What does this fold into?
Amino acid sequence: ARDFTIAIDGPAASGKSSTARAVALELGFGYIDSGSIYRCATLLALRNNIADVSTGATDLIDLINKSSVNIKFQPSSTRSAPNLITGRLSVPDVRILLNEEDVSEEIRKPEVNRLVAKVASDGGVRTAVLGIQRALAGAAETRSTSVAGKDGVVSVPGGVVMDGRDIGTTIFPNAELKIYLDASAMARAIRRWDEMNSSLKQARAADPALAAGDKAPAEYPSVEDIARELEERDYADINREHSPLRIAKDAVVIDNTAMTFEQQVYSIADLARDRM
Ligand code: C5P
It folds into this structure.
């Protein structure tokens, strides 16, 4: 069978990244987080004091072209089967390297969240990122293999899962499976808040001064703040001129507001297997 591409698009915090990673693990595919490349571009802008992207675009594009972005996805380093007691699926970790530096945490900071949609709206920046995206996808893709089974030699397809905003519409318009993942605005904001809350708990456990209240925790937004930020980012992503967020006409729309993570992952993996 030929190699298989799954495009997962949708608004901010709809669960694209964890879903894409679990689907990639389930199918033995590679994974590319395209949003992280825009986040790296945004970090380059912040670190080099390019506050106004519209006037500094040429400088920023130059910086992007001179930089390397690497996405390390190692599904083999985690348990690949669901937990037998809880049935819960594991989500493999992914690390983002910008010029060999691990920026995985830094690119999720509020400053980056606030600026990234502006950076991603620039046509020149998008062209620079496009090259990185396609190269990374080619390198991450797992190859099809033939294995001897009880029914003779069977072919196991390889492939890649990529998530973002314009993967099915612009980056891989011929993807074998396109998913548009959505959830209500409130569900998305609450999930993101939960995520931040658990990382704050982890930070408290690791740092006695933080736990004792002797040290102020890092900036910690309310659900309302998060909802507002997500809405602003979606508005910018939907209304920009260059490859805006759209539902590709041949995409399968999945609203996961009332679905479990496992239902969602298995339904996407099944859709893929049906088309292989
Ligand atoms: O997916 P994530 O939230 O990390 O993406 C951050 C931002 O990067 C998005 O809000 C969007 O502005 C931009 N982006 C994009 N096209 C993609 C992926 C992300 O414009 N394919």
In short: The pocket of cytidine-5'-monophosphate is lined by residues 12, 34-35, 38-39, 116-117, 120, 164-167, 233, 237 (CB under 6 Å). Residues 4-275 form a domain with the Rossmann fold fold (CATH 3.40.50.300). The chain has a mean pLDDT of 90. The beta strands are 4-9, 30-33, 69-73, 94-98, 101-102, 145-149, 152-156, 159-164, 177-182, 252-255.
